[in-house]
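Appendix B: complex inputs.
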Amino acid sequence: MTGFGWALADGWTIARRTLTHWRMQPGLVLFSWFFPVLMLLMFGGLLGGAMDFPEGESYYELLVPGIFALSMLFGLEGTMTAVTQDRDKGVTDRFRSLPMSSTAVVLGRYIADMLDSVVTLIVLAAAGLALGWRWHEGLPAAVAAFGLLLLLRFALLWIGIFIGLTVKNAQSVTMVQVLVWPIGFLSSAFVATSTMPAWLGTIAQWNPLSATATGSRALFGNPDPSATATWIGTHAEIAAIIGPLVLTAVFLPLSAQRYRTLSR
Amino acid sequence: MTTERVIEAVGVRKNYRGGTEGAGLNGFDLEVAAGTVTGLLGPNGAGKTTAVRILSTLLELDSGTAAIAGYDVRRQGAEVRRRIGLVGQYAAIDEILTGRQNLVMFGRLNHLGHAASVRRADDLLERFSLTEAAGQVVSKYSGGMRRRLDLAASLIVAPAVLFVDEPTTGLDPAGRLEVWSAIRQLVDGGTTVLLTTQYLEEADQLANRISMLKAGVVVAEGTPDELKTQLGSDWLDLVLVDPADVQRVVALAGPLADGDIRIVDNRISVPVKDRTKALVVMANSLHEAKIEPEDITLRRPTLDEVFLHLTGPGVAA
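Resulting structure:
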């Protein structure tokens, strides 16, 4: 087998480790898959009644793509926790002392986390459909929208690996988890950014999460009052591609460098 | 492979920026012959783990050279990693998986293929007496069982060198004995082992040769016996029935002493040069003075004494 072939094979072996975790601790992973559904129901119930929508339109049309994007952001925590735990338990050191490329270790994390995100999106989409959310622009556009969401997750993977290798211990991960919430709220995930004070709305619009939420709404054919007036509002799909690519360009080399110079 | 040097480090230096992350090395030298167990002994912060991490390619050295089986750790990392096994300070196994699942995974990552990985896992589980616990989740294992599984995982592909970093730190006495016997088995199988420890007893029990490390430099090297001899004198230990006799006995022992006599309660330790003569003369003097000691013994210095002598504060390296 070639070097690349082995990297793929080893990556798959490492990804299977996570799949085995799911099988050994089904409660944990099921909870993480259904938690976004819980948020969907909670925010739909809490905020949906307080908003004005044209006749026949429901808040879920706006909210479901927002929660899609939010669940990609929350996936970051899973990456971070797994990376930190492996480092602290010495599993990373053992991987590094094996005759396999470091690409395989990252590839394993990547496959496992992307599979996790795909399942999350499927569960969430099923819940959304049950609540009345629909895509209106045909299946190819809907698939493209899911592609935008997974692209965001891909970018967040590198941030997760970088932070996971940088923080001192598992306790610090909790602090980062708390910070994820305001980032999630300060976006177009729950409400149109046009309803916020101008300065806050601008910050929220430039949140990469907003670009993905607004961009995927456009592809699903769901309404989004944020998609007006400003450049970032009208070019959400492009921003939803460029944003994650920029994040990847910054954090992929950073996390690769962290991995090479782990010196605990 | 009879007298071949499997590990060779010359003048290795490593400084951590900021100095808080770990102890550096300041010209570390080490030679390990194939098929031997070398103990790297030193207190916390002496640089033991740093040395192991550099030799196992996990950490880059600043200057000096280090090679495993002739392969440079800096330039031929992949070749080195093919020939080493590493048991770190933390049992590096997946706690959510079972013992067998762990070993099969590491077998596949060593490119054995699935069937061979399963066979190898079962062999190793048997060898480390873990067959019964093979299907159990590792989080339910005792500390000693974890370390044994960790050792097994590092032996999936028989390595030329096995690094074992403080294998019994944090284990209870039973766990320590389990791990010791597992390491002895490896040695019987011909594996070259570099063992770091801060326990003298552990080095004395397991190692053929010991390198004592202080502040990133090897300050003494040799077999346990050589190191004990290096400190010089043997000791004549006397235990008295009546503490009131202590001063009289010290006076009698004075001419024999080759250094300071140590007194703790009714125990007197006299450093002596001429072993047998000292024992005979002391026994006669006590007999004449009509003092009957509870115990009188001649002994080599313990490794503890060598260790304190060499690594204690105020002793130049």
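Chain B has two domains: 5-223, 233-300.
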